[in-house]
Predict the 3D structure of the following.
Amino acid sequence: VARALSERYGVGPGDRVAILAANRPEWIVTFWATVSLGAIAVGLNGWWAGQEIRYGLGDCAPSLLVGDRKRLARLPGDPGVPVIEMEREFAALEQHAPGAALPEVPIDEDDPACILYTSGTTGQPKGALNTHRGILALLGLQFFHGARQLMLAARQGAAASAAGGAAPNPPCALITTPLFHVSGLYTGAVMMLATGARTVWRSGRFDPSKVMSLIERERVTSWGPMGTMAYRVIHHPDVGRYDLSSITNIGSGGAPISAELQEQMRKIFPGARRSLGLGYGLTECTALATLAFGEELERHPGTVGRPLPTVVLEIRDPQGRALDEGQEGEICIRSPLVMREYWRKPAETAEVLAAGRWLRTGDVGRIEDGRLFVNARARDLILRGGENIYPTEIEQRLEAHAEVREAAVLGVDHEELGQEVKAVVVPIDGASPDPDALASWVAEGLAAFKVPSHWELRTEPLPRNAAGKVLKQVLTGAAENTFIED
């Protein structure tokens, strides 16, 4: 496939190859073929609507788009770039040069390898450019953690065998996160290949029954449920019908996990009680910065762990000064994991990469006894089921509706999803828009997970400060005595 990309389409160092598809083998093969050429693999969000896909293509300006039929159908007309449909045309790439060696292309550690899109700190998605160095650094950290888990499993297996029990199951990882996420691509596709683990992939909408059936049938030993996946399995009425005992390693991230949910996970997956893990990271730092697992997480369920090797954390005040332990401020990260830049966005890059390549995460937290506790998101992001949602996109879409004067979008707490999207809408004079119609309007332009679940129609203007900024803390009732401009 690498030979075909190079010889048929002229893909070379620095060129972008955009991938738009559900989880499937062709996604992974395209990624490896692209990076082996010194080119940049671009994972476009497979949940995006047509308008969002066009934005991504315009932003990364790829030499080629490789996609599946369902997602390409969201792009009627000429996408402005050569297209390979996986179902119809990918086989020709595989047959281009059977048995050929990979092209010999010199690649430096700090060369760009992959662009994955994140909401970042502004309304439009931004492409976080991860380097070969960053991905390899992540691989090293996961080997570091995985080696400890394998040693633990080996001891448990030896003890079981000595006692006449069954031999441990060979490593098998279930991947239920999409490949356009850091966890699906860098952990599921890269790290699992490097460790030699067998992988079982889910494609399409998450289904807890099918996931439990896969765990039982394939004797899955490792699973990284993101967002609400663990919640949906644990609370499924048929959870007791499946044999989930093969799971010896389970970890999560992407959404807060309460102490209660952690304990429920230990009960449902008793084989992973000593290896339950919870991490913290961002796409901008190649997925991972801290990790808490096992007994330490059990003792301190509110932490997301200690910095991993090569990672340095600081909590800083608004002026960028480091704060003492226990004080609350912005979480900042320095590591080879930190992205090189936001693709072709120097101003936005300068906002988040401080002197010394310190990444300003925009998240608020504190450090106690070396452990990181994430208190809130300083950025105006909504975290729904592990997906970052920036309110500006939804507000702009709503305000384009003929019956809407202004709108504010915010997150509301939800037991399963972490947060849900709420829209506060001020209609134009004399209008009474139906929330279902507004939801359909949003869904026509944005991905389904961005459509508000809660609606509030108000006749009063939105509360704003002297600079014209909407005071969302007033809308949520978090601030009672705040100056509101008349």
